[in-house]
Design a protein that fits this description.
Blueprint: E1 3-6, H1 23-35, E2 40-43, H2 57-67, E3 72-76, H3 79-82, H4 85-94, E4 101-105, H5 111-121, E5 124-129, H6 132-140, E6 149-153, H7 159-175, E7 182-185, H8 191-201, E8 204-207, H9 224-237
Parallel strand pairs: 1-2, 1-8, 2-3, 3-4, 4-5, 5-6, 6-7, 7-8
């Protein structure tokens, strides 16, 4: 069980005053999150214009590694980032400062090809499952066991529906006898309920401004490190309150 810090995601600049958008800001923020107890980092590199970019991975990963030596750092490969299959593949193929792992959304048509390219490059894979259909597609892949972990990521605002989807995904994985580590997270209003579910299941979780800016009591956190510290304390204490 670990707490991973997801420090920025696709959030807009005005989402939170401490949202890190440059490589150096991400590196500084990542170091604060590690000091707060984060075991790993999930980052969405940004280009000079502030937009997400797979071509910015080298500079960002290098900066983060300098600030957090020895800490695993991962990135997203979301299709929306480059918004073009060929550009996505070309950017990944051109990486020189390789992340330790990269998230791949099974809802995206090119996911199997992206996963194979990451394997060829020696980059670990977080298989992102947002729906039961994603899970079914994942377990149907011949090489589904060749991933670093399963990322159950539920972007459904209604808690009851979100929990039902997460449990449905877990059931598909169990039926297929998938034995890879699982990291579970919600978004915004469901973040802390999913942190609690992860603790109950003895799965890992992630928190940070990519997923939400509030603490369990509803207060807006001052930064990523405060959110991470709260989740780590929760995991250690075994109680949300």
């Amino acid at each position: 069980m670990i707490v991973q810090a997801c420090i920025n995601g696709a959030r807009p600049r005005d989402f939170h005053p401490k949202l890190p958008l440059t490589a150096q800001a991400m590196a500084s923020d990542a170091a604060a999150c590690v000091a707060a107890g984060a075991a790993e980092l999930h980052i969405h590199p940004r280009g000079a214009d502030g937009h997400e970019s797979l071509t910015a991975v080298d500079a960002t990963v290098l900066a983060v590694r300098g600030a957090c030596p020895g800490t695993l750092a991962g990135v997203s490969t979301g299709a929306w980032i480059e918004n073009d299959v060929a550009r996505t593949r070309a950017a990944i193929a051109a990486w020189r400062e390789l992340p330790d792992y990269a998230s791949v959304n099974l809802s995206e048509a090119d996911a199997p090809a992206v996963m194979e390219l990451l394997r060829q490059r020696g980059v670990g894979i977080e298989a992102g499952l947002a729906t039961i259909e994603d899970a079914e597609r994942f377990v149907a892949l011949a090489d589904h066991d060749r991933v670093l972990r399963i990322l159950i990521e539920i972007d459904i605002p209604d808690l009851a529906s979100a929990l039902a989807e997460a449990n449905g995904i877990a059931a598909v994985l169990e039926h297929a006898e998938v034995r890879r580590p699982i990291l579970l997270h919600g978004v915004d209003a469901t973040v802390w309920s999913f942190v609690e579910l992860a603790r109950q299941k003895r799965w890992s979780t992630r928190v940070g401004l990519e997923d939400g800016k509030t603490l369990a009591d509803g207060r807006v956190a001052k930064d990523n490190a405060e959110i991470v510290a709260a989740a780590v304390a929760f995991f250690r204490a075994g109680s949300a309150g």
